[in-house]
Amino acid sequence: MRTPVILVGVDGSKESRAALRWAMEEASHRGARVEAMLAYHQEPVIVPAVPVGLNPHGEMPRRHPARELHDTVQQVRATMLHAPDVSECVVVGDAADHLTDASKHAELLVIGTRGRGAVREFLSHGVAAACLRNAECPVVVIPPASTR
Fold first, then answer.
1. Measured between alpha carbons, how far is 74 from 94 in angstroms, rounded to an integer?
2. Distance (Å, whole) CA 118 – CA 7
3. Are 6 and 58 in contact (CB under 8 A)?
4. Rounded CA gap, 58 and 125, in Å?
5. 85-109: pLDDT as tens digits
6. Do the beta carbons of residue 107 and residue 32 sit within 8 Å?
7. Which among 148, 139, 147, 144 has a CA at the least distance from the CA of 26?
8. What pLDDT score was predicted for residue 47?
9. Which of 2, 4, 18, 57 is the most buried (most CB within 10 A)?
């Protein structure tokens, strides 16, 4: 028998951390495994005309998305008594497209929302709206009140 999968979209926001926590708690009750997915748009590589190690804009270089996802999972795991294992998946491209495609193999898709309300969220062009319209499994949308 195949272990059920709870898929959760993670982008580092407090809303997605709440969704991850909810997914991990639900997985513990269901005996499911959690797959946390972070999607990002790859920016073109620009080779600076300054010596390596100097940033002309004075900004810190961005951390790799895989590190961001791993750190988020570990932060949520640290707040739980019995946290299930979480597989981490980082993909390049549109989050809604990747989540809805991966929903074909999931028992449940969990996403956080910034709180526009159910009707406005469904009618918008956001990730939650696209997942509600196109996912091939049930979708749980964690409201912002869960992030406090």
1. 24
2. 20
3. no
4. 34
5. 999 999 999 999 999 999 999 999 9
6. yes
7. 139
8. 61
9. 18
